[in-house]
Amino acid sequence: MTHRIVVLGAGYAGATVAGRLARRLHPDQTEITVVDASADFVERVRLHEFAAGSELKRRALRDVYAGTGVQVRLARVTGIDVEARTVALTGADGPDEIGYDTLVYALGSASADHGVPGVAEHAYDVGSARSALRLRERLTDLGAGGSVLVVGGGLTGLEAATEIAEARPDLVVAIATRGGLGDWLDVRAGQYLREVCDRLDIIVHEHTDVSRVETTGVVTGTGEVIGAEVTVWSAGFAVSSLAATTGLQVAPTGQIVVDATMRSVSHPDVYAVGDAALAEGPGGKPLRMSCATGIPTGWQAADAIVARLTGRPVRRIPIRYFNQCISLGRRDGIIQTVTADDRAKATHLRGRLAARYKEIVCRGAAWAVFHPTLLVPFRRRRITSPATTVERHARSVRSDVGGGH
Are residues 196 and 213 in the same domain? Predict the structure, then answer.
């Protein structure tokens, strides 16, 4: 009996899972399908570069998985029936359905408006390829002296503001942050960030809470108006509401609650990875939404699936952080070293060397996706007793979590 594994989403996390599974499981016993609405892999960590005018390398998913045995379905996921183990899809040919024995939910996240009026109508973001393209086109139309306000002082906001300011020195670029600028960085790294913003002539609005976005700028919580022809919203990310409609146990954030192996705590035949998963990290803190989280959770989920299907011990490798990589344009950056639970240490790397380091990280992440079966030793595992694959998997589920759904 062929064990059907369906991976929903082909971002960094989903793509990692699919490639690792293809490398480790025999194709005559498993059928691996990746479902994604985009025909191309999207380097999300570079979307701020694309919005500012850089060109990105495109790689079709079908080319990425050519020769691996992984099937690619280009469709949008519209529903999941966790009892029937089916996924509803809408593609070019209309509605369809696909069944699974093991499901990996990797649908990621999108820019979150946090209920602020006017964001959806008037703001731009870099949360997806489509929205980044929309911003790119708007910036292209913006003439010299035009004004851009980036709302949000996290990693995405800092990278977007500095990238736009460097690529378009003819524009007036500002950033509004709820707290202090880079206040989570160590003191010297924070000082360097301010120096970079000064050098790029970025206007900084600190301790500024935006309560409304309008066509001509934003209104703050104190009633102040900050004018801008283009508002870029980068105040965090949120997951789709889809998981919450399925019967899977989800957190208030809408993320699927998983154990240390990325398996749903309510439905053991479902795994969640990347931004879509609420996974506990060091110190009991939830892992943050990032590429740095997505790829390791993909490794963990794939290895756990292989182990359970082949009757081997499940390895639980703690996921921790080492640094935060911030590009500040194409020639500058900060690499902030952090504790295992993501708190800044008193050491960092900055300047051109930091920019090169960040570039190596981005290229490495993309290379791993574009070569999905090359990073794992060639040891394809056979599922024990192929005729009873599903039953053995069910027994594993019962022993690990003490029951079914």
Answer: yes
The percentage of residues in the chain with a pLDDT greater than 70, rounded to a whole number, is 92
Residue with tokens 């960094």: 12
Tens of pLDDT along 274-310? 999 999 999 889 999 988 899 999 999 999 999 999 9
Q: Are residue 254 and residue 379 in the same domain, yes or no?
A: yes
Q: According to the model, what pLDDT value does residue 224 have?
A: 96
Domain boundary among 201, 235, 269: 235
Per the structure, the complete domain to which residue 221 belongs is given by 117-235
Residues 315 and 259 in one domain: yes
Q: Is residue 206 domain-shared with residue 219, that is, in the same domain? A: yes
Residue 65: pLDDT band by 50, 70, 90 thresholds?
Answer: very high
Q: Are residues 251 and 104 in the same domain?
A: yes
Q: Which two tokens stand for residue 123?
A: 């703001």
In 122-243, which ranges are E strands? 123-124, 147-151, 172-176, 203-205, 210-214, 217-220, 225-227, 230-233, 237-239
Q: Which residues are paired to 175 by β-bridges?
A: 150, 204
**51: DSSP letter:** H
> In the listed set 218, 235, 252, which residue is the last one of a domain according to the structure?
235
Residues in contact with 202: Cβ distance below 8 Å, sequence separation at least 6, in sequence order: 161, 162, 165, 173, 174, 175
Residues 6+ apart with CB under 8 A from 214: 118, 122
Contact 110, 127 (CB under 8 A): yes
| pLDDT confidence tier of residue 9, bands split at 50, 70 and 90 | very high
Specify the number of domains making up the chain. 2
Q: Residue 71: enclosing H or E segment and its boundaries? A: strand 71-81
Tell me the pTM.
0.90
Whether 91 is covered by a domain: the verdict is yes
Domain containing residue 227: CATH number: 3.50.50.60
Question: Are 197 and 181 within 8 A, CB to CB?
Answer: yes
